[in-house]
Specification:
312 residues; TIM Barrel; binds NADP nicotinamide-adenine-dinucleotide phosphate
Length: 312
Amino acid sequence: MKTLKFKNGDSFPSLGLGTWLARPNEVYDAVLEAIRCGYRHIDCAYIYKNEVEVGMALNYAFSYGIVKREEMFITSKLWNCDHHPDRIENAIQRSLSNLQLKKLDLYLMHWPIAFKAGIDVPEGGEDLLPLDEMPLSETWLGMERLKRKGLTEHIGVSNFNIPKLRKLIADTRIRPEVNQVELHPFLQQDELLDYCRKEKILATAYSPLGGRRMANLEDGLLQNQLLRALAEKHACTPSQVILAWGMQRGCSVIPKSVNPERIRENLAALRVKLDAEDMAQIKKLDRNLRMAKADFAVFPNGPYTYQSIWED
Ligand SMILES: NC(=O)c1ccc[n+]([C@@H]2O[C@H](COP(=O)([O-])OP(=O)(O)OC[C@H]3O[C@@H](n4cnc5c(N)ncnc54)[C@H](OP(=O)(O)O)[C@@H]3O)[C@@H](O)[C@H]2O)c1
C-alpha cells in the first residue's frame, strides 16, 4: 500500500474505504471484502450510524487472522453535537466501543459547525450553537487531550478552509495533522492544498469520485470525455484515473463502495500512473463545484451561512 507520512513517521495509507451511506447490512461485507483485497484504511464516523457493523467486521478480520490490528488504519469523527470539551471523551469512547477498538489511528473534528448537545440532525436554527459560544479552538483543546490520553494516535479536522485552519493554528498548541475535505477534478482546491502542504497538514480527499449525487448529473465526473479518454489511454476505468489523480496530488483518497467489483476496481487505482500531460489536462476540469455544502446546518434563523462555513 502506498502511504503518506505523519510528522512522527507513522504511515497514512493513500487509499482507504469510505463508509458514509453504506447501509449497516452492507458495510460488514464491504469492510471484509476491502480488507481481504488489500485495503488498510477504513474511514468511519459516529454519524454514519454503521460503526457497530464496521466494528464487527474488523473484529472478525482480527480474530481470524485476516489482518492484524496494527496493520489497519482506522479513522472516526467527532459529530457536531459533541463539540463541548465535556462531551468529547464520551464521544470517542462511544466510537471506540462501536468499533471494538482500544485506540483510533485518527480522530477528526467532522465539521467547523456546532450543534446543541443531543442533536444529531438539526431541524432549525435553534438546534445550533454559534462559534462564538462554542469556539472551534475549545473543541480542539479537547481533541488534544484525547491524543495525550492515548485514545487516538493522530488528530485532525474536516471541512476546514484556510482562514479556519489559520485561526486554529494560532489559538492552539498542536496543529491538525489531517484536513479531510471534498476534493475531485471538479473541485480541486489548489490553494487549500498548497496551504496544507506548507503547514505540514496531510489532506484527505472525500467524495473523491464526486459522491453519489454526482452520478445524477448528466455531465458528471464518470461521464467526462477527458477522463474517459485518459482511462482508455491507460487501459483502466475513469474512477481509477480520478483516484490516481487524487493520490498523485499527494492526497489520500477514500472512495466509498459496497460493491465488491468496485471495491477492487478502486484499489487497483494504485497501479495507474498518470503523466505530466494527463495531470495538466485534468487541472483544466476544475469548476469549483462543491457537492457537500453543509445544507444541514444552514437555516434562516440560524448562526451559519454558506459564506460563514466556506469563506470566512
Ligand atoms: N468528512 C466529511 O464531511 C465527509 C463527507 C463526505 C464523505 N466523507 C467520507 O468520504 C467517503 C467517500 O465519499 P462519498 O461516499 O461521498 O463519495 P465517493 O466515494 O466519491 O462516491 C461514492 C459513490 O460512488 C459509487 N462508486 C464507488 N466506486 C465506484 C466506481 N468504481 N465506479 C462507479 N461508481 C462507484 C458508490 O456506489 P456503490 O457503493 O454502489 O459502489 C457511491 O454511490 C465517504 O464514504 C466518507 O467515508 C467524509
